Amino acid sequence: MTGTDFINSLFVLLLYMIGIGGLNGSLPAVVLYMIYNSQNQWLLAFIILYVTWMFIDWRTPHRGGRKIGLDIIGASFLFRSLKDYFPITLTKTTDLDPKRNYIFGYHPHGVLPDGLVISFGTNLLGFQEMFPGITPHLGAHSSEARLLTIVVPLFFLVILKAPIIREIALWLRVVDVGLESCRYVLTKMGPGNSVAINIGGAAELLDSCHKDYILTLKRRKKFVKMALETGSPLVPIFGFGQHDKFLQPSFTNFEWLGSYKSTNRTFVEKWLKIFAKGNVIPFCGKCIPYLPNDKPVAVVVGTPIHVQRVESPNDEQIEQLHNKYVEGLKQLFEVNRDKYGVPRDTKLIIQ
């Protein structure tokens, strides 16, 4: 291992600790504990100012996110290290019209969707040169409605409301993934402004260390409805190698909690299953906890699916477009699987 490789590994380790810590709640919990036990008046003053700022800035994720200084964080050595560690690459299959507003659907989630973040949240892979005039905004959860459901754990789960994680995310052009926020980007911010969403979300974390690509997509249709309502073309994106960062220990099935997809499971049970597995998987990486295997991630942007605007789409129209999207995603996978070394016995499973 060279000195550069060692430094890259350290920065990736830091990013994964921050990212996973933000997802499972451990990082904000540690920060709050430090604040609670701190006797430093300057630190307490800073915290008071920061919390005040958070409330003033509360609606920013719902109104297009940060507008200035977007490349400061994205171009930092921290994210360059993440790009070079695996490495992550970006490939396009066709040009995009800068006069249109697109909805990019990224698959799969993995433990952390670093392929999505590096490709669309930064310009380290040349997105702006590949797709001139297109400005992607990454979608992440910050739903106040869910926050009211289970206050303490979910406060840490939603990225755009967790201290520290929130600021990093906003500098990466992250916006709230809710319908109101995405519609604002697609209809109020001008041509080229688009949203990039990880469709499967945290549910796919449960299947992220499997031999097959297992996608949570069958019942994810709100993004399709939004595409119809705004007339935004859908663009499937596949991250080859995104799911293969940590090993899958046999004891992490957590059958005592049942299936995440089961409709008779409460939200708390589903959250507990993600929380439990999200805290075990990071210990099954390359050589030390939280350090992922350095296997390449190849992000391939597919062909846009044309969408005719419908003010109030019905279930049949939503289902038809959803089927088109699924077929487009399957085709993208099959056409490129050999190029990126996907074994023939590896399946694409959509559930």
From TrEMBL:
It is found in: Endoplasmic reticulum membrane. It comes from the Eukaryota. InterPro entries: DAGAT. Its main location: endoplasmic reticulum. The chain crosses the membrane at residues 12-36, 42-58. It is an enzyme of class 2 (transferase). GO terms for molecular function: diacylglycerol O-acyltransferase activity. The keyword Lipid metabolism applies. GO terms for cellular component: endoplasmic reticulum membrane. Its EC number is 2.3.1.-. It is a multi-pass membrane protein. One of its GO terms (biological process) is triglyceride biosynthetic process. Keywords: Acyltransferase, Endoplasmic reticulum, Lipid biosynthesis, Lipid metabolism, Membrane, Transferase, Transmembrane, Transmembrane helix. Belongs to the diacylglycerol acyltransferase family. This is Acyltransferase.
